[in-house]
Q: What sequence folds into this?
């Protein structure tokens, strides 16, 4: 495909309510969007890097810099015939996976429109609906925690994930399990524990959790495998899995029994599909994680979740949980059964509200093809 222009934008978008994890609290998102123009069409990508390097070492600012100075010019002069060509185009650049994913996913988005097929089909997805879970941030007190769980259980979400950290775990889980003995429940520690906490974490087994997500170091496999040996509850890795090889290592070492796939964290749709396939071939279920995305990233997560081995409910939730007004139309809605319908129309299946995006834009830059030396 011919690429005429790549436009970078930063948007400021306050969350409906603050989201607290073990690594910090987010009240307003700085959203980096990629607008890819070519073939008379526009492909969109969203960079999921955070405002601070707390979840991963990338931030929206490092992503902006590396897209503008390296990745953008590489892509603009590449004429990729397929989204799957992007990893090769970007090969020279080490790391910066969230920046790469924003561009690569925009290529797939554009390609699906060119071919007139749903993005989900282009990715190899077959599901017509996806099962949804929800991620609940750390609340100021137990009363608000229980109220937050009640809201989401009533909304129909099939799995409730609770953010936890030392000092906000066993008592909180007791209170939630006491009130809802049978719901599908998991926790996500975002690397807040150390191996010294192993005895304490083994205590989580009593709560019949679907999984414990990323309890230990964000770059670790070995110590997770030691912890997994002591747990009945499956460990799920998020931060540690950067690519297919990581997934293979984690599965081989029994560091986890479930994998969270985030497109941004692994560098784009190609690698996300590779992780999905590697896990599937080894009987390891996966689910799609979230990064407080706007509707553009959310639409891409829905398409990815339509692949076969996404057998567990993902953190792909309704727009209104995050935003007063989402930047896509229609907004993402979740049925009372806790499902989202996978769009059957060509492309991402949600219109992008360019008027609203323009209004929210605080920074904009156009990238041109690499100058030939
Ligand atoms: O670890 O899954 C995570 C949000 C920001 C950074 C990391 C994570 C999360 C979430 C929220 O859990 C998922 C979502 O609803 O988008
Ligand atoms: Mg996580």
A:
């Amino acid at each position: 495909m011919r690429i005429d222009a790549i436009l970078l934008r930063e948007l400021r978008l306050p969350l409906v309510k603050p989201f607290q994890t073990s690594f910090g609290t987010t009240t307003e998102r700085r959203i980096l969007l990629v607008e890819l123009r070519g073939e008379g069409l526009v492909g969109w990508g969203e960079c999921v890097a955070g405002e601070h390097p707390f979840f991963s070492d990338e931030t929206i600012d490092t992503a902006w810099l590396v897209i503008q100075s390296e990745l953008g010019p590489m892509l603009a002069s590449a004429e990729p015939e397929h989204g799957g060509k992007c990893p090769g185009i970007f090969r020279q650049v080490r790391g910066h996976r969230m920046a790469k994913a924003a561009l690569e996913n925009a290529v797939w988005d554009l390609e699906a429109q060119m071919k007139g097929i749903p993005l989900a089909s282009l990715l190899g997805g077959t599901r017509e609906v996806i099962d949804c879970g929800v991620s609940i941030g750390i609340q100021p007190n137990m009363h608000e925690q229980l109220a937050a769980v009640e809201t989401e259980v009533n909304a129909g979400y099939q799995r409730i994930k609770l953010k936890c950290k030392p000092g906000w775990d066993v008592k909180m889980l007791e209170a939630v399990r006491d009130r809802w003995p049978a719901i599908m429940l998991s926790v996500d520690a975002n690397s807040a524990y150390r191996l010294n906490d192993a005895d304490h974490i083994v205590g989580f087994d009593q709560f019949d959790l679907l999984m414990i997500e990323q309890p230990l170091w964000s770059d670790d496999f070995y110590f997770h495998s030691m912890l997994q040996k002591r747990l009945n509850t499956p460990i799920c890795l998020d931060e540690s899995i950067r690519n297919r090889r990581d997934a293979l290592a984690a599965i081989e070492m029994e560091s986890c029994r479930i994998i969270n796939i985030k497109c941004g964290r692994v560098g784009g749709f190609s690698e996300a599909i590779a992780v999905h396939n590697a896990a599937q071939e080894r009987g390891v279920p996966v689910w799609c994680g979230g990064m407080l995305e706007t509707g553009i990233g959310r639409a891409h997560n829905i398409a990815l979740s339509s692949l076969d081995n996404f057998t567990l409910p993902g953190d792909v939730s309704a727009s209104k949980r995050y935003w007063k007004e989402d930047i896509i139309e229609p907004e993402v809605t979740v049925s009372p059964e806790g499902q989202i319908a996978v769009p059957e129309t060509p492309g991402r299946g949600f219109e992008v509200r360019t008027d609203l995006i323009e209004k929210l834009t605080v920074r904009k830059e156009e990238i041109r093809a690499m100058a030939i030396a």
